[in-house]
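Example record

The entry below shows one chain as it appears in the dataset: sequence first, then structure tokens.
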Amino acid sequence: MEYKRPLIDKDEEEEDIELAAKRVTAYDASLECKSESENANNIRQSTRPQTGSSLSHRKAILILIIIVVLSLLTIISITIWVIFIKKAETTINVSKINKWKENAITVAGEIEGGQKLNQLDHPCGFFIDKDKNIFIADRWNHRIVEWKYSAKKGQIIAGGNEEGDRIDQLSSPTDVIVDQQNHSTIIADYGNKRVIQWINQNQQILIHNIHCWGLAMDNYGFLYVSDEKNEVRRWKIGEYNNEGVIVAGGNGEGNQLNQFISPGFIFVDEHQSVYVSDRENHRVMKWKKYATKGIVVAGGNGQGGNLNQLSKPRGVIVDDLGQIYVVDWRNHRVMRWCEGDKEGEIVVGGNGIGNQSNQLSYPTGLSFDDEGNLYAADYRNHRVEKFEIIL
């Protein structure tokens, strides 16, 4: 049987070809649309990660800026503190290296001791008021003498009626302070074992039966007195009808930290700490308020002339920075110590015993005026010396 190919109409064949062509064209268009859609998706997909990366970069930059600002603030703060500390250290160092002229000016008395108003006889403690008037315990003349600023002679304001125990007499006064509120003079009347007050030639015994040597007054209305019973007591000013309160010592004679041997001059700072010249222990002691024992702030290494030693110290005063100035009696000099230092330094004197302007002879009392000039009672030269500060 002969296979016969079906007959196809020519028009149908052309139509089939045309349909086939259309299908191909439609397929190609579909591919093209799909390609564009995929490209759009690809573009969107590639754009999203790019936006996240940009935010991360911005966050990193912001964090970096914050870190830099905080670092700068820290550096500035540290710098300010360093400058402040350095300035404070410089202030302390400037104060510590304060110096005084080697040669003193005699502001009271003469080398030749005597009873005249231009003379003194073994001056001991003294007081300088705000006008630079000097009130001197003229010990062996048994009187208190006031020398006005730049005066050539003094005037007697207490005693001067020969030695005695009458109310108008004194016996070997060792120290004097002036209560500038009522213009009264308070005196350690050593030989009569009493503390006495003089106001315009009127006298009142404040404290009886006390072997007093040094006096001090604080800013809180208390009077302090050192007693050769090896203690320091204080009284509320105006309330002397009691035994006072022991603020240093009071534990008998000895060299322990809670004892003294012959306490002499005293100084009280703004915190009511009491500084005491512990004469026979050759040291200066500091007793803080309410303390049961003191600490050694100068000397304490036996009697001697080395820079870490004192020899029977007398006058003591402390400046606003806590530097301690002490009269080194038998070494004929004034020394400066800082609390905690192993040794002190000589500020005036120290040129041997003598009566030259750069020498002292057994100095006793010590003080400063408001300008920082240093004064010392030159005991055996019968004068008060002023050492001018070097600015």
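Notes for this example: The chain is about 20% helix and 35% strand. The CA atoms of residues 19 and 307 lie 125 Å apart.
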